[in-house]
């Protein structure tokens, strides 16, 4: 049985960057629906006791195309939003520290360069999708983007996501309307780098 990550902050805790109505709808409706659908489909597929990472990594092997597509979309939606809501927790460090900070400098040149690269990927994603900062098998960092609810696990990259930017319109349209770039600029203010750092340390 899959459960949404519990938020230890209120829907209004990320104002003015992410508004309370968007948070309430995003978490309480969109993420809740992905989670409910995943539970139904994982039950049907006999995978209810598997980890979400295993389900996503093995989803291409599901024979029934409706079940395969459903697990890919709703399993991705479940996993992706758990990471998204975990990393935008208020409080924590406002910029990376420790080994993550050093690795960002090594792989991207600087924190600002990494943000620019990820911002460009997020803005450049055509239609719904995500931008990702991931840890490679060698412990390096990699920036990428994906369509819909795909992620670096379901696409078999071998990378582990440690930070993400949701660029589905439901993530920003109530407040930012068509201005995706303004939402992304605001989002950088609410990333909790202590959370991302602990995911990097794995
Ligand atoms: Mn979303």
Report on this model:
- The protein is mainly alpha-helical and 202 residues long.
- It folds into 2 domains: 20-87, Helix Hairpins, CATH 1.10.287.990; 98-201, Iron/manganese superoxide dismutase, C-terminal domain (minor pseudopilin epsh fold), CATH 3.55.40.
- It is 50% helix and 10% strand.
- It is built from 8 helices and 3 strands; from the N terminus they run H-H-H-H-H-E-E-E-H-H-H.
- The chain has helices spanning 20-44, 52-57, 65-87, 98-108, 111-124, 173-176, 180-187, 193-201, and strands at 129-135, 141-147, 160-166.
- The chain has a 3-stranded antiparallel β-sheet with strand order 2-1-3.
- Helix 4 packs across helix 8 (193-201).
- The longest helix is centred in the first third of the chain and has 25 residues, at 20-44.
- The mean pLDDT is 97.
- The structure holds manganese (II) ion.
- Manganese (II) ion is lined by residues 26, 30, 81, 166, 168, 170-171.
Quick structural gist:
The chain has 202 residues and is mainly alpha-helical.
The overall number of domains is: 2
CATH architecture of the largest domain: 3-Layer(bab) Sandwich
Our Rg estimate from Cα atoms comes to 16 Å
Poorly predicted runs are none
Which percent bin holds the helix content?
Answer: 40-55%
Strand order of the largest sheet: 2-1-3
Question: Can you tell me the CATH class of the largest domain?
Answer: Alpha Beta
In one word, what is the shape?
globular
Number of DSSP helical runs:
8
Bound molecules: manganese (II) ion
**Residue share in β-strands:** 5-15%
Can you count the beta strands? 3
- H/E element sequence: HHHHHEEEHHH
CATH topology of the largest domain: minor pseudopilin epsh fold
Structural class comes to mainly alpha
Give the CATH superfamily of the largest domain: Iron/manganese superoxide dismutase, C-terminal domain
How would you characterize the largest beta sheet?
A: 3 strands, antiparallel
Q: Please give the alpha-carbon distance between the first and last residues.
A: 23 Å
């Amino acid at each position: 049985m899959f459960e949404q990550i519990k938020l230890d902050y209120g829907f209004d805790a990320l104002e003015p960057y992410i508004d309370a109505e968007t948070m309430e709808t995003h978490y309480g409706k969109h993420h809740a629906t992905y989670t409910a659908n995943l539970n139904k489909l994982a039950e049907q597929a006999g995978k209810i006791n598997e980890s979400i990472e295993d389900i996503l990594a093995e989803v291409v092997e599901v024979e029934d195309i409706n079940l395969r597509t459903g697990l890919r979309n709703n399993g991705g939606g479940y996993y992706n939003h758990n990471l998204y809501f975990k990393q935008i927790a208020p409080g924590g460090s406002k910029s990376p520290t420790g080994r993550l900070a050093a690795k960002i400098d090594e792989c991207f040149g600087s924190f600002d360069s990494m943000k620019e690269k990820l911002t460009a990927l997020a803005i450049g994603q055509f239609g719904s999708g995500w931008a990702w900062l991931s840890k490679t098998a060698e412990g390096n960092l990699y920036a990428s983007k994906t369509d819909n609810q795909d992620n670096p696990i379901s696409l078999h990259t071998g990378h582990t996501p440690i930070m993400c930017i949701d660029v589905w319109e439901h993530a920003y349209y109530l407040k930012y309307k068509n201005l995706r770039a303004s939402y992304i600029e605001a989002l950088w203010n609410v990333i909790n780098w202590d959370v991302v750092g602990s995911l990097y340390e794995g």
